[in-house]
Amino acid sequence: MKYLERGYLERDELPPFPSEERLKKKAVAYIECPQPIPCSPCYESCPANAIQMNNINDPPKVDYEKCTGCMKCIRVCPGLAIFMLRLRDDGKGEVTLQYEFLPWLKKGDIVKLYNRKGEEIGEGVVNWVLPPERNDNTSLVRVEVDADLIFEVRAVRPAGWER
Amino acid sequence: MVRTEIGRLQEHPIVDFRRGKEVTIYFNGKPIKAFEGETVAAALYAAGVRVFSRSFRWHRPRGFFCAIGKCSACMMEVDGIPNVRTCKVYVRDGMQVRTQSGMPDAEKDMFSILDDVIDKVFPHGSHYSKFTTSKKAREFMVKRMRKFTGFGNPPKAVFSGNADYEEIETDILVVGGGPGGMSAAINAGKYGAKVLLVDENPFLGGQLVKQTHRFFGSAKERAGTRGIRISQILEDELMSIENVEVRKETRVFGIYNGEAGAYQRIDENYGKLLRIKAKKIVVATGAYERTLVFENNDLPGVYGAGGVQTLMNVYGIKPGNMGLIVGSGNVGLILTYQLMQAGVNVAAIVEAMPRIGGYFVHAAKVRRLGVPIYVRHTILKATGKKSVEGAVIARLDDKWQPIPGTEKKIDCDFICVAVGLSPTHELLYQAGCKMKFVPELGGIVPLRSRFNETSVTGLYVAGDVAGIEEATAAIMEGRIAGIHAAVTLGYGGDEAKKELDEAVREIEEFRAGPFGERIVCGLEKCTLESEVML
Ligand SMILES: Cc1cc2nc3c(=O)[nH]c(=O)nc-3n(C[C@H](O)[C@H](O)[C@H](O)COP(=O)(O)OP(=O)(O)OC[C@H]3O[C@@H](n4cnc5c(N)ncnc54)[C@H](O)[C@@H]3O)c2cc1C
Ligand code: SF4
Ligand code: SF4
Ligand code: FES
Q1: What is the pTM assigned to this prediction?
Q2: Best label site of A60, A118, B16, B440, fewest CB within 10 Å?
């Protein structure tokens, strides 16, 4: 379990990618939660039974064909480990993620994109937001990014943000 | 050196800080702005005060550490009364607060020169071996040394308080209003038992009041819900049960053969001494934070993780600009995320083990925001004169020894020690419970049955005091203890027994994963064979 030495997943530790065909149909839940921990709200919230879990400690696995992209799971995940991914016909990609920082992001905002290691990997545009007040202050933010970045972008911050 | 910006958070993504009326308190004679509902320690911190006291012997500066009344680092004289833990008293207009160990005050202590001299002449700890050759010399020196210590001054104020005495009879007394205690009270109360729940704080929720993040667990245990909301949900449920009485600001100080002694604060000048006769008692007093040995670990700016959480999430006070977190368990990881939510940067997380201790998903959350996590690293020392200005960390070899040459300087203005909690077990000891040191459970814990009854019949435990776990587990344990206590008093019947079995099964399932392994292993060492048959 090398990922526990680093705090991020490498390519070979990631769950299988949904097919390009599936990604093009509509958004799909991609879950990066590899470790057995006693947690199951994603599984319990899924109306399509797309998330498999044998017991509360079993890491969740998504059946991409069953997933309807309803976003119930990403709203509740305490680990901020679920990302909705999509490939658009125009060649752009979309990543939706949970966001809990001030200032809240709005549609049209330009954001910096970060990968799992916290490295800046480009810029994106926010094209949809579930406002914080609609989801107990966990906002959902969808960013438009280059298609090849949908498996890379895992955090966003406003354009002027400095660590 | 990092610039320290002080003051109160005006906005926060999760918490809406509702502050009380503005008041003025006096600190060593200087007026300081505060808001009703804040503790004295929090208000002083917000005003930039870092030195709260001086160490007894060598007059080293001390800040606060735990913020929940358990470490004594914040003791001052309040309105003429010495040795008051300022993190537990609330501000009031016109309040006079003075530091008590230092000349003229703790901030500018002329005796602090001792600390520099003494480090050269008598290195730390040498007073145990010096002057011991002759008894006379030792006695003389001990007397001198005690003179230097500042244990406060005799009270200068006339005590204007007033106390009543009240005897209470109840079926079940629950001590502690955290998730463990609230759950025990709810589950005993709902089957009809008469329950009294007491907590020393003016609010219920225990540790939950500062857990702004969403919780793990199953939906049934309200996973995906924020800790602060879980606290509110439990409180609402508790308040809706008629036969449950709640007394806040009531501290239990002793348990004597099934009777408990407590002090209830009614207002500034009026309190009640309570004698509580209970058929069953559930102790759910939680835990306190551990510290860690490293150079200058007593410098103001070295805080317990929970202390920082309290300051930041309960009172909305910014702990500093750049933190260093020691320990990568869930507490350290979540605190890092919470600091960033409050606009505070975190320089790094340092972990001595070869891998991250908490949940990977929590680590990933802060890692992708650029916080480095150094496993196999430890903190060697905090640097700074009157408060933390930086830290030195180093890599550890396989024998946990720092590797020379790997030292790294970290710029930070505070350090959070998040290396674990220890059960608050004093009441259990005093009540005569058989206790055992079980490292897997975080320290000294009581022997208990499967239903959480200790070796003292009718005395139950629930939550962190029984072993450091999680709020979810505390809620489950409270449910088990509460129902068992009620059932053995004749409440609930078959329905309650069925629920009890179910509750025991659920907690076993909860602990079945790798994170539960340690707990299960610890529990095996302290399970009592005899249990009350139903
Ligand atoms: C940073 C952090 C993150 C956490 N995250 C999670 C999480 O994601 N999920 C999770 O499940 N858990 C989490 N926890 C753990 C959880 O908060 C604790 O395990 C839980 O609060 C323990 O509950 P308790 O009822 O045993 O004790 P506490 O919550 O500590 O409550 C004990 C209460 O007893 C009172 N008390 C003590 N002594 C006396 C006395 N003599 N008389 C009267 N009252 C007394 C105290 O004032 C306190 O209110 C986290 C903890 C921390 C610190
Ligand atoms: S997006 Fe909806 S359907 Fe897909 S896994 Fe999540 S909850 Fe299930
Ligand atoms: S809710 Fe999130 S953290 Fe919990 S199991 Fe599902 S993906 Fe993992
Ligand atoms: S007792 Fe007040 S900070 Fe610990």
Answers
A1: 0.92
A2: B16
